[in-house]
# Entry
Amino acid sequence: MGQGLEPKRTDIPLYRSQPQLPSHFFIFEQSKRKKLLTWFSTTRRNFEEMKTMNIYKIKNIIMEFG
# Structure
């Protein structure tokens, strides 16, 4: 399947219900988790993608977005 070529869905609610987050997400303090959730919702990324990200990738996102 074409990576990233799917049309952006606009019917996805911004993550009000907590999806299944990977355990390494919870090593971050609340404020950083918020930034990460905001980044995911603003870029319309999918939480499945977060599960495949390693901790360094997540740290980079937080630093860039923060």
